[in-house]
């Protein structure tokens, strides 16, 4: 079984064409996710970021091409085998009524439960630690539907961490969080990568947060990958203009020395 520190656990995709029904969203995508690194997918609305993430998680079957997890085509792998290696946080999910925070976080252990296995001390410890690192332990006995949007998001992330997968896939994980909790969460992902060796893939909208925390950027536009690599190598004023239609200045972040995008004032048509 692959451990969380297994450097051989790989995720890649080749020649992906993705869509829903007859509508094509992405075409000819080749992706290699660096192991033990934080990859961030960025791009304008509707460019296919979430679609790509879902295909990498086996939630969307490619119309063409394949996704490979540790040398196996992910579509052919048993669901439980995938769930032990890859955890996914969607943009949103229904809030269960009258379920406590601890009960919801405990659902993250389902992939580790056999048909006749019982709840173990290890399960209890993993759930407790997941609640501690996401700072939701104080809400353990509260019902999830009584929490704020930001608190619920942290609970969902705790459930993902309780799954204990080497690869974490996150679709807009900072949704509903204020700026302080956004940065706290991104620091948590950074810690998981550095201390536990997690491979993390996240869709983010904030370019400056992406540049500050990503080891690897995947830049999508019009359903195609226009750039892949480190923020330092990729992020230029011409790329921001090409992908987002925004004039900007690129300066060094005074805290991290990563690229920081300073938007110029957009031109507003004369409405008078």
Q: Which key phrases capture this entry?
A:
alpha/beta; 12 strands; globular; 9 helices; disordered N terminus; four-stranded antiparallel beta sheet; 272 residues; 31% helix
Shape: globular
Q: Cα-atom Rg, whole angstroms?
A: 19 Å
Strand order of the largest sheet: 6-7-8-3-9-10
Mean pLDDT metric: 90
Main sheet attributes: strand count, strand direction, barrel closure:
6 strands, mixed
Low-confidence stretches: 1-7
Distance between the termini: 67 Å
Beta content: 25-35%
User: Given the helix and strand composition, which structural class is it?
Assistant: alpha/beta
The arrangement of helices and strands along the chain is EEEHEEHEHHHEHEHEEHHEE
Query: Helix segment count?
Result: 9
How many runs of DSSP E, i.e. beta strands? 12
What is the subunit arrangement here?
Answer: single chain
Helix content: 25-40%
Describe it:
The protein is α/β, with parallel strands linked by helices. It is built from nine helices and twelve strands. Helices cover 31% and strands 26% of the residues. A six-stranded mixed beta sheet has the order 6-7-8-3-9-10, sandwiched between helices. A four-stranded antiparallel beta sheet has the order 2-1-4-5, covered by helices on one side. Helix 4 packs antiparallel against helix 5. The N terminus is likely disordered.
